From TrEMBL:
<dbReference type="InterPro" id="IPR011883">
    <property type="entry name" value="PaaD-like"/>
</dbReference>
<protein>
    <submittedName>
        <fullName>Phenylacetate-CoA oxygenase subunit PaaJ</fullName>
    </submittedName>
</protein>
<feature type="domain" description="PaaD zinc beta ribbon">
    <location>
        <begin position="125"/>
        <end position="164"/>
    </location>
</feature>
<feature type="domain" description="MIP18 family-like">
    <location>
        <begin position="18"/>
        <end position="71"/>
    </location>
</feature>
<dbReference type="Pfam" id="PF23451">
    <property type="entry name" value="Zn_ribbon_PaaD"/>
</dbReference>
<dbReference type="Pfam" id="PF01883">
    <property type="entry name" value="FeS_assembly_P"/>
</dbReference>
<dbReference type="InterPro" id="IPR056572">
    <property type="entry name" value="Zn_ribbon_PaaD"/>
</dbReference>
<dbReference type="InterPro" id="IPR052339">
    <property type="entry name" value="Fe-S_Maturation_MIP18"/>
</dbReference>
<dbReference type="InterPro" id="IPR034904">
    <property type="entry name" value="FSCA_dom_sf"/>
</dbReference>
<dbReference type="InterPro" id="IPR002744">
    <property type="entry name" value="MIP18-like"/>
</dbReference>
Length: 166
């Protein structure tokens, strides 16, 4: 057997970055800001993910998908670590990711988490992704998944999911 080839960590990062969110398949984990780091640790590809919130069931699927994608690309020694600190916030979502979310029919986060102040409800000013109206209301704190809340538009009467700010 020949010596182990040099690990192409840049390629590993591209492969990991292309893995999509199982709940919102237009978004990659890189768009979401869930992918924190890909590094070469003595020949092992070490991928670090931060769940969108602790207990989000999608993170296990994301880990499996990262492992599968890297394995399919020929990487052999792979480890996926989770880090909860610093905690993920919607601020980590890329602008491209927010645009894709809206095209997918999910209202993106309306403001930066750091700007959240006082008793103003988070539902304030959530824009309908279909008609753009701000006349929307939160129907349920939990939408199709626990990471999203469910809204309805009072202008076009369409229901939609809103990616929670947190
Ligand atoms: Zn609407």
């Amino acid at each position: 057997m020949a010596a182990a080839p040099v690990l192409d960590i840049a390629r590993a990062r591209r492969v990991a970055a292309a893995v999509v969110d199982p709940e919102v398949p237009v978004l990659t984990i890189d768009d979401l800001g869930v992918l924190r780091d890909v590094r070469d640790e003595a020949g092992t590809v070490v991928v670090t993910l931060t769940p969108t919130y602790s207990g989000c069931p999608a993170i296990d699927q994301m880990r499996d998908d990262v492992l599968l994608a890297l394995t399919a690309e020929g990487f052999r020694d792979i480890r996926v670590d989770f880090t909860l600190s610093p905690a993920w916030t919607t601020d980590w979502m890329s602008e491209a990711g927010k645009a894709k979310l809206e095209q997918f029919g999910i209202a993106p986060p309306t403001h930066r988490a750091g700007e959240r102040q006082g008793p103003i409800p988070l539902s304030l000013g959530v824009k309908c992704p279909r008609c753009g109206s701000l006349r929307t209301r939160e129907v349920s704190r939990f939408g199709s998944t626990a990471c999203k809340s469910h809204f309805e538009c009072l202008a076009c009467l369409e229901p939609f999911d809103h990616f929670k700010v947190h």
